[in-house]
Amino acid sequence: MVKQDRARRTHELLLDAAAAEFVRHGYVGANLQRVAAEANLTKGALYAHFTSKRLLANALIAPFEGTWRELLAQAGRTDLSPAERLRLVTDALAGRLQADLRFRAGFHLASEDARAHGRLPRFAVDFSGCVLGLAAEARRQGQSAGVQDPEWLGQLLLVLMYGVYYTTPACGMDRFGDAVCALWQQVVRGGEAASPSLPALCGQR
Questions:
Q1: Which of 56, 119, 131, 142 is most exposed by smallest CB count within 10 Å?
Q2: Which residues form the HTH tetR-type domain (predicted)?
Q3: What confidence score (pLDDT) does residue 169 get?
C-alpha cells in the first residue's frame, strides 16, 4: 500500500510538472529532462510512469476533454435562459483555464495538435455547436433579438478566448477570466447597433 501511494504521488507530481512544461513550451518544445527535474525525479523514474512524451501529453489531453464535456453539459440546464447558459459555459471554461494548470495544458496541447493536422480542436467544434443550439432555443422562446448571427457569435467567443490566452503571460493568468469578460464587453458596446450580442454573457462576477 505504501509503495502504491508513493507511485500515485509520483504520478501526480509528474503530471503537474508536465503541465507546466507543455504550457510554457508547447508539445514540440517540451523537454522530458526538465519535466523530471521540475518533479525532483530522475528521467528513469519518469519513464517508469510514462514511456514517451506522447503518452504524457495524452494523460493531460484526455482529462481535459472529459472535463470540457462536463462543462458543456451545463448548456442543457432547463432552469436558465439560453443567454444565461452560454454565460455559464463560457465563464466555466475561462475559470478552469485560469485556475487549473492541467486543464490549461490539455487546452494548449489539444489546440496545438489540431492546428498541426489542419483542423479545429474538438472542443472548439463542440462550443460552436453549443452556441448554435442555444441560439435556436432563444429563437423558439422569442428571444432572438440578442442572437442575430449565432455562427458569428460562436466564432467571436473562440477568437476572444484564444486571443486572450495566447497574449496573457503565465504570471497574469489569475486575471484571465476577467480579461475575456472585459474584452467581450468592449466588443458588445462597440458594435451594439450592427453586431449580434448576448448582453448577459458578462454579468456581475
A1: 142
A2: 8-68
A3: 78
| pLDDT at residue number 201 | 45
Contact 176, 164 (CB under 8 A): yes
Q: In 3D, which of 148, 108, 107 has the Cα closest to residue 131?
A: 148
- Buried b / exposed e over 176-186, threshold 16 CB at 10 Å, is bbebbbeebee
Q: Which domains does the chain have, with CATH numbers?
A: 53-190 (1.10.357.10)
